[in-house]
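Reviewer 2 asked us to include a model.

Predict the structure of this chain.
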Amino acid sequence: MKKIAIAGTGYVGLVTGVCLAEIGHDVICVERDHHKVRILNNGYSPIYEPGLDALLKKNIAEGRLRFTNSPTIGYKSAEVIMITVGTPQNENGALDLQYIEQISKEVARSIKRNNVIVVTKSTVPVGTNKKIKNWIQSEMQSSLKFQLVSNPEFISQGTAIYDTFHGDRIIIGSDSKEALNTLEELYRPFGLPIFKTDMNSAELIKVASNSFLALKISYVNALASLCEHAGGNIEDVSFGMGLDTRIGSSFLKAGVGFGGSCLPKDTHALVQMGNDSGEAFNLIEEVIKVNKKQELKLVEKALNRFKSLRGKRAAILGLSFKPNTDDVREAVSIKLAKRLVHEGATVIAYDPVSIPNAKKVLGEQISYADTVEEALLYADLTFIVTEWEEIKNLQLNLFHELMKEPVIFDGRNCFHLETIKKYPVEYYSIGRPLVIGKISTLHQ
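Predicted model (structure tokens):
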């Protein structure tokens, strides 16, 4: 068992802390927000993530997990300190390291034991750990020694707990064999493959992996546009591609692009790294361009159908950037809602968990529904943006029974075309043929 301190209780920090406590480590999480610390110590998670609340309560009750506002209390006895604070993007796409710098200096002033291992789990540009080393050394007031490890995370929101216990690999990079061995032992209870490398390579593995996933998404979305013009069905095309084991089926689902806090940030970061090194990463620049175009694909379809959206009542189903999370960072729904308002539409949105976060961004520009039925009532058109199970399992008769005009723009291809044909709706999806079901009963 190791004494572990987690710097930050954002998404990565909280999930990491809870899961490390679950495998037996003594974990303390350091968080500046007093209100957040109070909520967490009472066993309540400020973020939505399936399975997180139960593990949080369990490990607090069993004495392996606690939260504090005090860096001194949090770091003084820790054998391993994990930095998990955010690295937001600047306007030029570079990652802002101000929070990393603050925490590094805070850690330096607080540690009291020798050979503490400082682990960077935040997404950072190549070379950041060298800066962290300098920041810590500049603030340390004693001759204590410390070691650095780069340990990028690969959890996905909505499946983070599962990913932690059933991931593909754990990456640790350091110039210290002793530190690598300690981290290997720390993670051994997870029973996952552990790959040890140098710090620069570990830092790069993170952004390279996410950028490659983004590439697959943009590729299939570009292919979906070709299918619409050529008369193909992107689901059949991507399925046929995925049968090739060299390609695989994951991340080959057409839609309205990727969002969230990882893929957009990491693709921009990789481009920025390339520019800084004089090696332009044109391939990833094109990935970003394709994604940006895809984000408003549904609006283009709606404008082609209606010519003008002024005065139309538009329902949006799903606000989070993906299912099973309340995160709306870089969510397509936010950009879609703003564009619809700009086009003169009245917008009402439904999401099972992320409306409070969406309100922080959109405010009163749109209305919010408590149920799917409320969102659909008297709507002229509906946009499906997040493939929540509740939305995928909707009774399809609701569209024509509740909407003023049952015209659906499905950005996640939630419904089978053959099923849709049985209902009096007009159905536009991504990379698949238009379906007009029972045309004689459609609103004229």
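Residues 440-444 have pLDDT under 50 and may be disordered. The radius of gyration is 24 Å. We have added this to the supplementary material.
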